Amino acid sequence: MDALELTARREALGLDQATLAGLLQWEVGAVVDCETATRDIPTLVGAKLDQLELARDTIAGLLEDTLPGDLPTYATDAAFWNAWPHMRGIPATIHRVAAADALRSAKWAGIDARIVPARLHTSEQDPARTH
To answer: Is 0.90 topped by the overall pTM?
Structure first.
């Protein structure tokens, strides 16, 4: 993978450099260096991007299977992980990107759909919203 591919894939996932750095447990400067080709890109970066892209594509497929209808998504990581515990560690941004992908597919197919906030059950309240 080269620097341009890394940048393109990161952006397609809706991630900023700081978020990707956090997911890799790196300093932001390391991601910047990789994207400016001043540092070699380790294979673990490609593997992490593959994991995130698979999560995005899986979520988009599951959302597309619910069409026609609303496409619920999550404002925070905590809310996403409460509803999708097997996705813990995948940022909610990935779910929102997947919802946008599913919406685009719906529109191309002539299906009326919209992205809406996911409903939280009392037991799934987002801790970030209770303060």
So the answer is: no
